[in-house]
Amino acid sequence: MAEPTPLHRPNMDHWQERVDMAAAFRWTERLGMHEAVANHFSLAVSEDGTEFLMNPNQIHFSRVKASNLLHLDAKDKDTLSKPGAPDPTAWGLHGSVHRLCPHVRCVMHVHSIHATVLACLKDSRLPPIDQNTATFFNRYAIDDEFGGLAFESEGMRCSELLADPKIKTLIMGHHGILITGNDVADTFNRLYYFERAAETYIRALQTGQELRIMSDELAEKTAYEIETYPGQAEAHFSEIKAVLDEEGSSYAS
Predict the structure, then answer these.
(1) pLDDT per residue over 82-109, tens digit each?
(2) Which of 2, 148, 179, 222 has its CA 20 to 30 A from that of 133?
(3) Residue 183 pLDDT exceeds 60
(4) Range of the domain at 129
């Protein structure tokens, strides 16, 4: 897809990153993993990770475009008082992560049904009962300290739980899920598979039968094989954009 010229499009900085972000919003809505005009994705675009793109306040995922994403600076304390300010809870959560966790490049936070059901259980652990659930073995953290809407104090606590680069998934008790990654494709792929994994686990619990749980050794082997499998996330996301392009979607405008 050719990059449009600055004479014809606003917000031209980091155009390919904007296109990828917009595609992720559109596909998340298609999968029913969005929630009204809430939930947010962000992507670091500066070397230190503090400048980032994020969806505009109160815009439905199905209407997010490359050109209407916000370009924010996590170090700017006046952000919320400026015109076109982001959602305050999005700023509190995503701004904190990008300010405090420079290794985190992309953040996707949703209240998708099965991940949120898991977050509502007293025991929110995800046991390795199949290939998808094993993907996350020893690679997630659980936030047990929910204190209300995700303003800055919530964001700072979540950032502490993401300090270990190995932890790319945060199960947010009473709340939902937060997924991180190296770029949009990597993060969206993880988001997609976590929701699938959570659904498998919840449905397995509903049978009332004893679960077939992998040994720690097998779960770790499976997780490692999946995270080192070449090109899967990139191929997944490339196909998503190809489908949107064939449909004539406006995401890349």
Answers:
(1) 999 999 999 999 999 999 999 999 999 9
(2) 148
(3) yes
(4) 15-246
Residue 166 lies in a domain: yes
Given a contact cutoff of 8 angstroms between Cβ atoms, the answer to whether 22 and 237 are in contact is no
Residue 196 φ/ψ, nearest 5 degrees = -65, -45
User: C-alpha distances in angstroms, 247 versus 228, 240, 242, 243, 250?
Assistant: 32, 11, 9, 6, 9
Confidence band, pLDDT 50/70/90 cuts, at residue 12: confident
Q: Within a domain: residue 200?
A: yes
Domain for residue 6, yes or no? no
Question: Does residue 8 lie in a domain region?
Answer: no
CB 81 within 8 A of CB 157: no
Exposed e or buried b for every residue in 73-83, given b needs 16+ CB within 10 A?
ebeeeebeeee
Q: Which CATH number characterizes residue 91's domain?
A: 3.40.225.10
Q: How many domains does the chain have?
A: 1
**Location of structure tokens 């439905």:** 60
CB atoms within 10 A of CB 113: 16
Query: In whole angstroms, what is the distance from residue 162 CA to residue 142 CA?
Result: 10
